Amino acid sequence: MATRWGLCGAGKISHDFSVAMKTLPPADHQIGVIASRSLERAKDFAKKHGIPKAYGSYEELANDPDIDIVYLGVLHTEHWRVGLLFLKAGKNVLCEKPFAMNSRQVKDLVAAAKKNNVFLMEAIWSRCFPVHAEVRRLLAEEAVGEVKLVKAYFGSPQLHIPRSVEKELGGGALLDIGVYCLQFVLMVFNGERPESIQATGVLLDSGVDESVVVVMKFSRKKMAFCSFSISAQLPNDAVISGTKGSVKVLGPMHCPTTLVVNDKEMEYPLPEPCFPLNFTNSTGLRYEAEEVRQCLLKGLKESPRMPLAESVLLTEIMDEIRKQVGVVFSQDSQ
């Protein structure tokens, strides 16, 4: 039986997700519904992507019995409210990153998933890429010895994009792209909580972070350094340095196709898209879709590649970074 998907939100990421789905066998994955707050947008999207049903409200999708899982591709300021709608309706959910605006909201989503006995995953698609799988394998066999330092960079000029810079839209470098650097560090250190976090950054006039540098210290003298910015292009790579060598994930580190292990380069090419994409390497969204299918087939309620406890920790770290840098959202006082 194919996994039957319902898409929530007819924006850019849902477009790319739909294009990525076309690279997977139709016997395994079907998009049955697109839901938007605008029925017209939903119908246009459905026509373009060959999706049988279009809804003009999220509630209709929540009440559709023919859907196995909802892909939540709305703005992250809406993840908490809309996510709870689906979870309380007994729907499995793959929620785009960042999971929500703060750790309190994330804990609400996790609690709702557990209470309703449904699957929930934060769509940190990076975790599902073959490059990341190979990194985990190399670390498990101690290919670089004992890991001492992890560095991750992500910078892209986005000051012209409203959702990147406006506080009401949950803007800032941290929630949009810094999350990728931090999740990479947590993946390398197996979801370990850092012993200390030191963050400094500069803010835009809107009150969101433009550029941030984070240094974290972990047990057994392990360190991590992350730098992210929405005003400048950075190398966008990640390096794991150990006592016996290094592993480098070449940019774009959040959706990588090239890995360098002790100077030996390995390629993991992506399938070509059938439509133009909005974001880099988006056909790689196929990997998280397949991860979700495998989890559902096994009856799992969360993904071992991105466990819910790790999503909570990731958001707690982001809360602390925002506190140190001085970014406050209206959701923090609700």
TrEMBL record:
Keywords: Oxidoreductase. InterPro entries: Gfo/Idh/MocA-like_OxRdtase_N, Gfo/Idh/MocA_domain, GFO_IDH_MocA-like_dom, NAD(P)-bd_dom_sf. Its EC number is 1.1.1.179, 1.3.1.20. One of its GO terms (molecular function) is nucleotide binding. The keyword Oxidoreductase applies. It catalyses: (1R,2R)-1,2-dihydrobenzene-1,2-diol + NADP(+) = catechol + NADPH + H(+); D-xylose + NADP(+) = D-xylono-1,5-lactone + NADPH + H(+). Residues 4-121 form the Gfo/Idh/MocA-like oxidoreductase N-terminal domain. Pfam families: GFO_IDH_MocA, GFO_IDH_MocA_C3. Transmembrane segments: none annotated. It comes from the Eukaryota. Residues 133-247 form the GFO/IDH/MocA-like oxidoreductase domain. SUPFAM superfamilies: Glyceraldehyde-3-phosphate dehydrogenase-like, C-terminal domain (SSF55347), NAD(P)-binding Rossmann-fold domains (SSF51735). Belongs to the Gfo/Idh/MocA family. This is Trans-1,2-dihydrobenzene-1,2-diol dehydrogenase. It comes from Seriola lalandi dorsalis. The lineage of its organism: Eukaryota, Metazoa, Chordata, Craniata, Vertebrata.
